[in-house]
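Example record

One chain of 168 residues, shown exactly as stored in the release files.
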Amino acid sequence: MYGGTGRRARHSPVASRHSPKTAVAADAGAVSWRCSYQEATVNDKNSYYWRKQLMWGLLLIGLGGALLLDQLDILDIHDLWHYWPLILIVIGINKMIGYPTAQDFTSGLWICFIGIWLFANFEHMFGMTFRNSWPYLIIAWGITLVLRPFIRERFAVNAPNKESSHEK
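Predicted structure tokens for this chain:
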């Protein structure tokens, strides 16, 4: 707790007003922390875009593989066709995780909802058909309008900075 000078060591991140060297060191530490935070954010956003690209690549490989197996009469894809809305749900979830903007998050919610709605209609879950389930779309639209300010506030940190894009 005590330094070699007999004085109590300071644990405050605020620089001492008596020592200009301490002030410079504290400022350098703050700049270092900001830079490491920005680098971590950039790396996280890069991994977010890499994950999105990976998901699309795997989705295309899976779809192409299923179509190839159908052509080779190994798999009958017509039996699996009514599950395609589940792909929309996966795409919507992928848009919502990571570091989405408010627009990405909202569109991800819509894609998930439409995927769930289509799947429920194709499977006739809860007696749903296209004829009797269309009001759910209007209700979802209203929920989106109510939640939009909260989503914008929550994801404001992830919004692209217009000033920094002009500097580059």
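Notes: The two ends are 47 Å apart (CA to CA).
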